């Protein structure tokens, strides 16, 4: 701030001095040439005194992460009566995933979308493998353990959101 204030005072004074000291020079073109030379010398002096530096930075764009958690506990094999038929809870989740596949694909353009199967433990799975390997077979769901494990996995990363597909049956108590 102090340097800018000093420069704000010194530069106009120097310009005024450069121009008024050229009163004895008769030719206008010669006066402009001398003024330009003085201005160039003054600018060069300022650059030397202020020591400007160029800094080159290489930046890398990192995508934020979104976790898609898919419950794979046995409670998802329970059939739920939904008009007009009866479907298992895991089938409802599969239908929701299929219906929103384009949405998750679009999310992948801006975010790193990570898929996990969870129950009493959390297991990362590739997005393409979800359709073929998703089944209800684990004994119970422990959401506390799952979220603790998720925090550990994203300790040094930016987790921006979680999609949780579950029947909500936390059977650890």
UniProtKB/TrEMBL annotation:
Q: Mind telling me what this protein is named? A: VWA domain-containing protein
Bilayer-crossing regions: 6-25, 32-50
Q: What keywords are annotated for this sequence in UniProt?
A: Membrane, Transmembrane, Transmembrane helix
Per the UniProt record, the source organism is marine metagenome
